[in-house]
Amino acid sequence: MKSALLVVVLIACLQATTVSELKEKLSGYGDHPFGSSMINLVSVNMKTGGSLNELKQLLQQIKDELIALTQLQDQESATFTRRSQVDLAKLQATLEQAQQDLDNQRQEQSSLSNELSTLQTRVKEDQAALDRNSRGSGDAQSRLDAENTDFAAKYQDYSDAILACKEAQRLLMNLRGEGASLIQLTQDTKSNLIQTKENFQKIKEILEAHTKKSSLTLFQPIIEGLAEMTTKVNPETLNNVLSLVARLITALQEGQDQLEANHKTQVENLTRLGDDLRNEKQTLQVSLATANNRLKEIQSRLNELDGLINISNAIVEVTQLNIQDATRINELEDQEYSNQKVSRQTEIDIVDRLIEYINQKLSE
């Protein structure tokens, strides 16, 4: 009984000695969970009298598995790093493209805004020019209408004056043919002379506004001669009046011809002005229509760009956030990989020291 107890005590002492030696061998790793587990594994094996060679083989197998696991983790980490780099490169490319699109869209927006402002000014100028053109066209037409009306009235005045002169000429020539200087004037002849004198007075007043003064100077001696002949017909006076009337007819016809020539020139000028204004109006209308159509196109494109810029801004913001998230994940993954690598190396170091301890025991 005492012998059995002694054996138990001796085994306990050996076990305590083994654990103490192992902890000393694993100085610095004794508190490591893996180190504690391995100490228990070795001590139990030695306690139960297990083969040290088999224990060494077991430890070598654990080490090989740890090395294989480390290599696998290295491969997985390298694969993850490559994929992460590819993903980050894609995100970066997406970001750069979105930023380039945004820059292009903003440049186009700025250019179109400038063009829009220029076109708006041009539209205002064209519209103002078109308004002036309309007023000018109306004024030209009014002047043409007034010219035609004025010409018709003056031309008729000339015609009436010439007709009156010719009637007076016939009357006087009849008097001269009848030898009126030798006979007493009949009441009808006297009345005709008085009426003719009054007609000349009215014609003079009408023609004063638009007849040469040289023509008007002929009226007064004619009127005075007619007045004289209402009482008696002097052949000299009669011939003188007839001569004056003939000169007056010639002067009035020349005046009428000049009036017609001036009217023709004025009508041509006003017609040409009207044509020019109509051509200008057509040009302005085309320019205005073109500018307004371009304004609609620009406004439509600007509205479209507003939407595109919002989309590009959103893409930039989201991509930047994705890059930040991916970068953080990579950093966390790198840190995790680094921690695991250190932990795995620690475990390998622990196993190496235990193998060294077994080798030492085998050599004793």
What would your notes on this structure say?
By secondary structure, the chain is mainly α. It is built from 7 helices and no strands. The longest helix is centred in the C-terminal third of the chain and has 129 residues.
Short structural description:
With 364 residues, this protein is mainly α. Helices cover 91% and strands 0% of the residues.
Notable characteristics:
mainly alpha, 7 helices, signal, 91% helix, coiled coil
Task: Assign an overall shape.
Answer: rod-shaped
Portion of residues in beta strands equals: under 5%
Quick one: how many beta strands? 0
User: Distance between termini?
Assistant: 32 Å
Structural class: mainly alpha
Rg result: 65 Å
- By oligomeric state, this entry counts as single chain
Order of helices and strands: HHHHHHH
Biggest sheet, in brief? none
How confident is the prediction overall: mean pLDDT?
A: 83
Helix content: over 70%
* Poorly predicted regions: 1-16
Total of helices? 7
Per-chain topology:
Layout: H1 2-25, H2 33-47, H3 52-177, H4 187-207, H5 213-216, H6 219-229, H7 235-363
